[in-house]
Design brief:
The chain is of the alpha/beta class and 302 residues long. Helix content is 31%, strand content 27%. The strands form 3 sheets. It has a 6-stranded antiparallel beta barrel with strand order 8-9-12-11-10-13. The protein has a 5-stranded parallel sheet with strand order 3-2-1-4-5, with helices on both faces. A hairpin with a 2-residue loop joins β10 (218-226) and β11 (229-238). The protein is elongated, with a radius of gyration of 22 Å.
Length: 302
């Protein structure tokens, strides 16, 4: 669904979970789980309302953070949580200028709205003037309940996309996984590369990521999700310093173990399991080939 009017097709009473949900981490999961549970109690339907692209990409693109999940990836994870209905609203400058009360009234008019679940500090609408107090006031007027789901804390730290993003950037994949409730992964589309990996005997899928936060440069043991099947793999993030005339562009390349076939144009989800080694420059392509073989054997042992 991409329009508020689409909510009319959802059987009521309707409980909405609203948020950006970048990463769909433990805090986001708590909001969605509350909506699902309350909808079940009410004998109605839960729907997740989110936004595409991330609001920061529109409002302050020069300061917008790297994402934890692209929109297709985010929607895929939300569906896996049992969300039967998802409304991904296009976030534009025009939408950002909407008065928060007008947005909520539009939602209430479109469906049998009985509850809105958000994070406890969520702010929305023009100048971020919408908050729980406004939801409470409008709820009394329009006949719905508002629920501010408390923050989730883990090891004394509030779970947030900012904290997770920093952990990934620093290479702390274990911490990121704890806060996400899953191992960190990137959904990317396979694009054509120079096919050097194929010449070395280790064909790689070059992924065009959607501005997601990459871990530090290096070689990683990964799982690759493809059409419902999980393959083992080894991934390299970096600038390929051994390759003559390399562009210096930071790339994500994945060798899928025991796979043969054409992956161009296919979406792959690369799940980062563990760091194997730092990226390095080798004295020759033969040395590089030997190291790739060792890396693949290392990853296969997981």
């Amino acid at each position: 669904m991409q329009s508020v009017a689409d909510l009319a097709a959802i059987p009521g009473p309707v409980v909405l979970a609203i948020g950006v949900f970048d990463g769909v981490h433990l805090g986001h999961r708590a909001v969605i789980a509350r909506a699902n549970a309350d909808a079940k109690v009410r004998g109605g339907s839960a729907a997740v309302v989110t936004f595409d692209p991330h609001p920061a990409k529109v409002l302050r693109p020069e300061k917008a953070p790297h994402l934890l999940t692209s929109t297709p990836h985010k929607l895929r994870i939300i569906r896996s949580l049992g969300a039967g209905h998802i409304l991904a609203l296009p976030f534009t400058h025009q939408f950002a200028a909407t008065e928060p009360a007008s947005f909520i009234r539009e939602l209430a008019a479109a469906c049998q709205l009985r509850e809105i679940c958000v994070g406890h500090e969520w702010a929305f609408g023009k100048d971020r003037a919408g908050n729980l107090a406004l939801l409470d006031r409008l709820g009394h007027e329009l006949g719905f309940d508002e629920v501010g789901v408390p923050a989730v804390e883990l090891d004394g730290e509030v779970v947030s996309s900012t904290v997770i993003r920093a952990a990934i950037e620093q290479g702390d994949l274990a911490k990121a996984a704890r806060l996400l409730g899953r191992e960190y992964s990137i959904l990317g589309t396979v694009k054509r590369g120079a096919q050097l990996g194929r010449k070395l005997g280790f064909p790689t899928a070059n992924l065009a990521a959607h501005n997601e936060q990459l871990p530090p440069n290096g070689v990683y043991s990964v799982d690759v999700n493809l059409d419902g099947r999980v393959w083992r793999g080894v991934a390299n993030i970096g600038v390929r310093p051994t390759i003559e005339h390399a562009t210096g562009e930071r790339l994500l390349e994945v060798h899928v173990l025991d796979f043969s076939g054409d992956l161009y144009g296919v979406d792959l989800e690369v799940v980062f399991r563990r760091f194997i080694r730092a990226e390095q420059k080798f004295p020759s392509l033969d040395t590089l080939r030997a190291q790739i073989a060792a890396d693949a054997a290392n990853a296969r042992g997981d």
